[in-house]
Amino acid sequence: MPAMKNRRITILTDVIEQQFLPFTRTTSRYIGGEFNQIKKSLDVCDLKVALCFPDVYEIGMSHTGMAIIYEALNRLPNVAAERVFLPWVDAQEVMKQKNVPLYTLESKAAVKDFDMVGFSLTNELCYTAVLNTLDLAGIPLRSKDRDENFPLILGGAGMANCCEPVAPFFDMFLLGQAEEAAVELAKFLIENKNTARKDVLKKAAEKFPFIYVPSLYEGSPPRISDAVIDDLDKSVVPEKPIVPFTQAIHERISIEVMRGCPGRCNFCQASFCRRPLRFRSPQRIFEIAKKAYQATGFDTISLLSLSTADYPYLEETLNLLNEYFEPRKVGISLPSLRVDVQLKLLPKLASSVRKSGLTIAVEAASERLRGIINKPITDENLFAAVEEAYKQGFETIKLYFMAGLPSETEDDIRDIVKLCMNLALLRKKVCNRVAGINAAVSWFVPKAHTPFGWSGQQSEEYFRNAREIIYAEKKRLNARFVNFKFHHVQRSLLESAIGRGDSRLADVIEFAYRSGAKFDLWDECFNFELWQKAFEKFGLNLSELAARKFDVNETLPWQHLGGPDKNYLLKSISKS
Q1: Is-contact 212 171, C-beta < 8 A?
Q2: Residues contacting residue 92 through CB under 8 Å, at least 6 positions apart
Q3: Which of 387, 415, 393, 420 is nearest to 403 (CA)?
Q4: What's CA 471's distance to the chain center, in Å?
């Protein structure tokens, strides 16, 4: 690794303004300079970090994790952290035609000149976007092809816990919760700024239990631990969030009320990997909300967690927030709600919660199947909660379901429609009107580090048949007031095939990218045939990998990458 203080940074402001921005659509994605951005003089900083969310600006600006790391690193006086998002297809064409390299928003500096590029890996289908980003920046895709003249490439966020499919593209991964760990790593890199690249990586892996450096291991790597934040009240939060120039997907004040989840749904990787359970105090939440509101003027506060209804101080927190924010016409959003006795109280507690709709993750329509997936929701509590919501003025309900779960029957699939219809008709009991039900059905994807990680996924034919069963049942019941939206079947198959794969898939991912795969999370860009050909190119069958069942005695491709102990997960299966 070259002396970081001597790394020459290319500022591209003139080129961007003259050769790029005039030829783009949605130009506000690419200009930077937003209110509350943090811009430092790169020349005087000892470490320059480009934080990349491998998707378009509107998506990345809604990601709370990236905002937290941006704040944490920039609190260090000798570190500059700047943002990078993936330009949309039209802008990429302009960049290629005009020979404009990828740049950061704050300083308009070439990404390839930074000391480190950190990627937020949030989904199995963002991997071609990572390669796309590296390509636009002029950085070799493979770690082995990068020398001292290129930045270190780091991966973090949820997919770091199952990162083997993209391991050859990264120099290192940071596993777990990164607020404090990223700061420790930054200080380490500054201390070792005159150390050779390979030695920096070796020393980092030796020093930090949460750092995984794939190139160090030819055989079985040692077990890497997840970094953990012990005290949420003392942890870093962005008290002055950046105000986007173009509307982001979630343009609001986002505050974590707790981390971890008291539930252990057998399909949920986050609930098993983000342990232990920690709470943020009501007073601290109020302080964060007040400062962020004064700094942004956003009119919605979102209380985030894997299961906000399980936050034990919810009533106290809502009372604190309502007292200050209700007169200011600031609403409160409560996503990720579980259905239990507490949910029945929420409409009364949150007088300023938006009343147009309530979102509930039911996952399965029958109590039998909910028991198997370890989501202990009773029909009694579900109906009581929804009835109370109707009484308090909620007009529509959005329900999340999952099809293709282990032991599922066709009756379980039909029950999705019946449950939706019964919940819609329940409103007649309150106001003699039928409610609107919006039901989102996703397809079960077995995830690493979960009790269902050993299970196979159902076939494409199974999922398409399940969709037809739901449509037929809706027609039979004449449930016109229930609207269904289905996740993309082929994308779900790819998530399963990649998410539990090993480093052999790096060749597949690179071939798919070079064949034209990009923005795989976007319907207008996703091309399943490209992926099928990429798997076939290397003698692999995408459908078979998606449906693969793992033996409990075999070594799993993700077994060394943090998460809970294997025996703990197996015990969870036996309890279901």
Answers
A1: no
A2: 132, 136
A3: 415
A4: 30
The β-bridge relationship of strands 258-259 and 278-279 is antiparallel
Alpha-carbon distance 463 to 496, whole Å? 14
Q: At what angle do helices 197-207 and 178-191 cross, to 10 degrees?
A: 140
The total of other beta-carbon atoms located within 10 Å of residue 483's CB is 15
Which tens digit of pLDDT belongs to each residue from 546-558?
Answer: 999 999 999 999 9
- Tell me the two tokens of residue 18: 């003259």
Residue that has been written with the tokens 């944490």 in this structure: 72
Condensed to tens digits (0 to 9), the pLDDT of residues 389-444 reads 888 778 888 899 999 999 999 999 999 999 999 999 999 999 999 999 999 999 99
E-strand ranges in 297-448 read 300-304, 331-333, 357-363, 396-403, 436-443
Query: Each residue of 503-518: pLDDT tens digit?
Result: 999 999 999 999 999 9
Q: What is the pLDDT of residues 288-334, one digit of tens each?
A: 999 999 999 999 898 988 888 788 898 899 889 989 998 999 988 87
CB under 8 Å to 254, separation ≥6 — which residues?
64, 67, 241, 302, 304
Residue 242 token pair = 């950046």
Residue 278 gets which letter from DSSP? E
Q: Is the pTM of this model over 0.90?
A: yes
Q: Give residue 14's pLDDT band: very low, low, confident or very high (50, 70, 90).
A: very high
Q: Which helix (H) or strand (E) holds 212?
A: strand 211-212
Q: Which helix (H) or strand (E) holds 156?
A: strand 152-156
* Cβ-contact 235, 179 below 8 angstroms: yes
382-386: long-range contacts at Cβ-Cβ below 8 A with a sequence spacing of 24 or more? 382/339, 382/423, 383/422, 383/423, 383/426, 384/344, 385/339, 385/340, 385/343, 385/344, 385/346, 385/360, 386/358, 386/360, 386/423, 386/426
Confidence band of 357 (pLDDT split at 50, 70, 90): low
Tokens of 92: 């990429």
DSSP letters for 399-423: EEEEES-TT--HHHHHHHHHHHHHH
Mean pLDDT of 237-266: 88
Contact 57, 24 (CB under 8 A): no
- Residues 58-73 have a mean pLDDT of 95
**In contact, 500 and 457? CB cutoff 8 Å:** no
Enumerate domains of the chain plus CATH numbers. 4-216 (3.40.50.280)
What's the per-residue H, E or C state across 76-119?
A: CCCEEEEEEECCCHHHHHHHHHHCCCCECCCCCEEHHHCCEEEE
Name every residue whose Cβ is closer than 8 Å to that of residue 247 and which is 6 or more positions away in sequence: 58
Residues 316-339, buried b or exposed e (16+ Cβ, 10 A)? bbbebbbeebeeeebbbbbebbbb
Q: Reply yes or no on whether the pLDDT at 339 is more than 70.
A: no
